[in-house]
Write a structure and sequence with these properties.
Elements lengths: L2 H5 L1 H19 L6 H26 L7 H19 L2 H24 L5 H20 L9 H4 L14 H18 L1 H11 L1 H6 L4 H27 L10 H11 L11 H20 L4 H32 L29
Helix pairs in contact: 2-13, 3-8, 3-9, 3-11, 3-12, 3-13, 4-5, 4-6, 4-11, 5-6, 5-11, 8-9, 12-13, 12-14, 13-14
């Protein structure tokens, strides 16, 4: 999978996002207006928040398909607690706690019982969605305080920039620094390349994976809060299909589904690119079904292009002269972790 980075797809995605803005501005005069850009940023807010933490999981060789149900359950919890307590701060904290608990359940089932994250999160996807209906029935809970929901309509410092931008920037920088500039980030790449090798050099694989699931649950919970603000309601069928958009964005950014490869800047650019495409299609009158087709097609492209790049690189490597291991340059996004790993062999 290192050929993905040699192919440079993760570096091309930000360029693709910029090109989409330029082409879109000529394609439809309403595309680059402040009102549409506000709508665009708001529409990708929840997806990008979850994509930040999901990137860690996918690079580590895991996945969480329950994030949409977790976000919906957090939203329903927020509405339920607000309805019974009358306190928005308490309701928001409760929503985040529920998100963290959902992530912890996923993580414990994977790390303690040794179950596959794909199978586990398919099950919890249904479980958490069922809890949404158990909590609110089939009703849509509204209204919320205007001071709470107005955050979706008021711009930052009186501008057109929505408040969710603050969360996207803060968490984007935070997750990016942790992934690419800390020992914990290097551990994530090492776990994705080989869990056995990571254990051998003393990396606490189980604890690290559990932490990633908990953080992913917390981010899904935060996305549920943002979702509630955006739609000014809590509903048990909210955020359906969001997990596919998150995974599509991560894979389109060049994050390897097999683990060990990925960059945070490409994921952020990928979410923005896919959101821009959907926004442009909406302006052109595309239906919901057509938008789903586009998302699925781009997800397929995100798998095919890295595979083609890998084959090209493998053929070049087979035809070219062999180099000693010491002469092979390190791959971007897959740093050496041995220098930072403790010498012990036990896993926490």
């Amino acid at each position: 999978m290192r050929a993905v980075n040699r192919f440079g797809w993760d570096k091309f995605v930000p360029v693709l996002a910029v090109l989409t803005l330029i082409i879109g501005s000529f394609w439809n005069e309403k595309f680059l207006t402040t009102s549409n850009m506000t709508f665009l940023i708001q529409s990708i807010g929840e997806i990008m928040l979850i994509a930040f933490s999901m990137t860690f999981l996918i690079i580590a060789g895991e996945i969480d398909l329950s994030v949409s149900s977790t976000a919906a359950l957090s939203s329903c919890t927020l509405g339920f607690v607000w309805q019974h307590s009358g306190s928005i701060p308490v309701a928001v904290v409760s929503a985040l706690v529920v998100g963290g608990l959902c992530g912890a359940i996923n993580g414990l089932l994977v790390t303690k019982l040794g179950l596959q994250s794909l199978a586990v999160t398919i099950g919890t996807l249904a479980l958490y969605r069922g809890l949404c209906f158990a909590l609110l029935g089939d009703k849509r809970l509204t209204p919320f305080p205007t001071s709470f929901t107005s955050l979706n309509f008021k711009g930052l410092f009186g501008t057109w920039v929505p408040y969710v931008t603050v969360l996207l920037v803060v968490f984007g920088v935070l997750f990016g620094v942790v992934l690419h500039a800390t020992r914990s980030g290097r551990w994530v790449f090492a776990i994705g390349q080989s869990k056995d090798a990571a254990r051998f050099v003393g990396i606490p694989v189980g604890r690290s994976v559990l932490t990633m699931f908990i953080v992913n649950g917390l981010m899904a919970g935060l996305a549920g809060v943002v979702y509630t603000i955006r739609f000014a309601s809590a509903r048990p069928d909210g955020a359906v299909g969001m997990e596919l958009e998150v995974i599509a964005a991560a894979l389109f950014a060049g994050v390897s589904i097999f683990g060990g490869v990925g960059t945070m800047w490409a994921v952020a650019a990928s979410v923005f690119f896919l959101g821009s495409i959907r926004s442009l299609l909406r302006l052109e009158g595309a239906t919901a079904n057509e938008l789903t087709i586009v998302t699925g097609s781009l997800l397929l492209v995100s798998v095919v292009i890295p595979a083609i790049g890998r084959r090209i690189a493998d053929r070049r490597s087979a035809n070219g002269p062999s180099l000693p291991n010491a002469a092979v340059p390190s791959t971007t996004g897959t740093p050496d972790v041995s220098a930072d790993a403790p010498p012990v062999l036990a896993e926490s």
